[in-house]
Structure formats: C-alpha cells, structure tokens
Amino acid sequence: MQNEIYYIEKDNQLFIKASGHITANICFGLRQKVFSRIEHQPMVTAIYADLSECEYMDSTFMGLLIGFNKKLLSQLHKKLCVIHPSKESQEHLTDLGLDKILGYCNTEVDFPDKMDLISQKDSLPPEFVLKAHEDLIEISEENKSRFKLVKDILAKKLRDQS
C-alpha cells in the first residue's frame, strides 16, 4: 500500500482519501488546497475523509483534520465526515479524543473515481506543524500535556527565525 493522499472537489463537496502511513510531509499540500477552497465561493457544502486504507496518521495530519472541521463548523455548522475508518485510524482518532469531535457518515458516500494525488513536501514550514498541534491541544488537557513540548519547540523555532 502506498503512503498517499488524494483530493478532489465535486459539486462543492471536498473528498479526501488517505492511504498507508500519513505524515506531515504527505499532507502539507492538502492543507493549502482545502483552506484555499473553503475561502472561496460558492461555499463548500461538505468535507469527506475516507480513512478505510489509512494504516497510520501522525499528529500533524490529525490536527489538520481538526482544522478543516473547525472551519467547516464555523461556516456551515457541519462537521467533517469520516468515512469507513480502518481499525488503526479509528484507534488514533479515539486516542486523541477526535472521535468525539469529528462526524462519522452513516450513509454511503460516492467518492469520485478519479482523484488528484497530493504531492509530498521535503521540508515543512514550522507554522504548518505548529497550527495543526495547536488545534489538537484545544481539544483536551491530555492533548495539551501530550503536545506541549512539540508546541514549545516549534514556537521557539519560529521566534528564532523572526
């Protein structure tokens, strides 16, 4: 199984499919595409994330999903909808308490057959990883203590760059 993320928009709905081990380097381009699209008209009506083939998600990817969810909630009062999470991805979501924040689709969602592969990035801006972790930290005190060191290191790196 390849470590890949696919994305496409159809009828003002955004479709995301994660396969294999999803890390920050793989999901950076996804952030740009989704947030850019959410900011433009016509309004996005739904975001679906198929995690059926996702064997691992790092905290940056999970924070990114929470960021998408927050934006969708603020604009439409709707949650990002997780589709068929694999056992492993469900465990990751549950471990961080995201299963209580994200939505889960009870009906079948027809994903487009042809989706665009998101390109991997070799180096990441620290603010990308920091924002994803800040979104995770907002969820619970447990996440706050779990990601405090990551947040502090990234914040210091940003201060040093300024």
Main attributes?
Transcription Regulator spoIIAA, 162 residues
Topology (SSEs and partners):
Elements: E1 4-10, E2 13-22, H1 24-38, E3 46-57, H2 59-76, E4 81-83, H3 87-95, E5 103-104, E6 116-117, H4 126-137, H5 141-161
Parallel strand pairs: 2-3, 3-4, 4-5
Antiparallel strand pairs: 1-2, 1-6
Helix pairs in contact: 1-2, 2-4, 4-5
Outline the structure in words.
It contains five helices and six strands. It has helices at 24-38, 59-76, 87-95, 126-137, 141-161, and strands at 4-10, 13-22, 46-57, 81-83, 103-104, 116-117. Helix content is 46%, strand content 22%. It has one domain (4-121): Transcription Regulator spoIIAA, CATH 3.30.750. α2 crosses α4 and α4 runs antiparallel to α5 (141-161). The relative contact order is 0.18. The chain is globular, with a radius of gyration of 15 Å. It is an alpha/beta fold and 162 residues long. It has a six-stranded mixed β-sheet with strand order 5-4-3-2-1-6. The protein starts with a strand and ends with a helix.
Strand content: 15-25%
Overall mean pLDDT: 94
Distance between the termini: 40 Å
The name of the CATH architecture is 2-Layer Sandwich
What are the segments in which pLDDT stays under 50 over at least 5 consecutive residues?
none
Question: Looking at CATH, which topology would you report?
Answer: Transcription Regulator spoIIAA
State the share of residues found in helices, binned by percent.
40-55%
What's the story with the biggest beta sheet?
6 strands, mixed
Shape: globular
Alpha plus pi helix count: 5
Q: Total number of β-strand segments?
A: 6
Structural class: alpha/beta
